[in-house]
Amino acid sequence: MAAVNDFAVRRRRMVHDQIAGRGIRDKRLLAAMNDIPRHMFMDQTLWRRAYEDHPLPIGNGQTISQPYMVALMTDAMGLTGSEKVLEIGTGSGYQTAILAKLADWVFSLERLSELSRAAQRVLEELKLYNVNLIVGDGTKGWPEEAPYDAIIVTAGAPVTPGPLVEQLAEGGRLLVPVGDRGIQTLLRISKRDGRVIEEDLGGCRFVDLIGEHGW
Ligand code: SAH
């Protein structure tokens, strides 16, 4: 098994080649991806592949997103450190950890309690305490803490879930993959002067968003 500093070397290479090498410039984001030990968010049998350029299985038919997709979506959220963030699809908790480093507070919803519990253990081990993990249907958002400065959905939706747009603060950004099962377009939806603006950030592939306002 690889030694700890071996993982650090792989992580630096991942950030250099896959993230900075593809045009991500945000220094705080690059530092966060250098800091967070991605391998800890997956089964030990996958640790040697943890820094490869693609998604990996995390059990229950779900996946941990490709590092570059995590970077692209986080970059598009434009976090400065003061934001209250809502994440839909905790999964492994890796994206959650990156958000915890870059925002003030993260609320993260996951429909599968087993995944949420595993993510909670890793986030605690990493001493990331500015996170609330919630088990439930994220397509309805989490009205209790709304509005949010940024919302990220890491599962593919048939249409943009209405409650998430409603729970977005003025000036806020919602990142959501929308399209068919297995292939979507990454949308950035912003609220400015009460208007809703939609931008197309390109193609992507996520597992299904399942729920009242999903599949
Ligand atoms: N960001 C995660 C991605 C996990 S895959 C990571 O990198 O590890 C997407 C996750 O969304 C899965 O864990 C799936 O169970 C979850 N999911 C799907 N529909 C959901 C819903 N309606 N509410 C909350 N989570 C949902």
Number of helices: 6
Number of strands: 9
Helix content: 25-40%
**CATH H-level superfamily title:** Vaccinia Virus protein VP39
Low-pLDDT runs: none
Spatial strand order of the main sheet: 5-4-3-6-7-8-9
CATH architecture label name: 3-Layer(aba) Sandwich
Name the descriptors.
215 residues, alpha/beta, Rossmann fold, seven-stranded mixed β-sheet, 29% strand
Structure characterization notes:
- By secondary structure, the protein is an alpha/beta fold.
- It has a single domain, classed as Vaccinia Virus protein VP39 (Rossmann fold).
- 29% of the residues lie in helices and 29% in strands.
- The chain is built from six helices and nine strands, in the order ααββαβαβαββαβββ.
- The protein has helices at residues 4-19, 27-35, 67-77, 94-102, 113-125, 162-166, and strands at 56-59, 62-64, 84-88, 105-110, 131-135, 148-153, 168-180, 183-192, 195-204.
- It has a seven-stranded mixed sheet with strand order 5-4-3-6-7-8-9. Strands 1-2 form a two-stranded antiparallel ribbon.
- α1 packs antiparallel against α2 (27-35).
- The longest helix is centred in the N-terminal third of the chain and has 16 residues, at 4-19.
- The chain is globular.
- The mean pLDDT is 97.
- Bound molecules: S-adenosyl-L-homocysteine.
Concise summary:
The chain has 215 residues and is an alpha/beta fold.
Secondary-structure blueprint of this entry?
Layout: H1 4-19, H2 27-35, E1 56-59, E2 62-64, H3 67-77, E3 84-88, H4 94-102, E4 105-110, H5 113-125, E5 131-135, E6 148-153, H6 162-166, E7 168-180, E8 183-192, E9 195-204
Parallel strand pairs: 3-4, 3-6, 4-5, 6-7
Antiparallel strand pairs: 1-2, 7-8, 8-9
Helix pairs in contact: 1-2
The protein binds S-adenosyl-L-homocysteine.
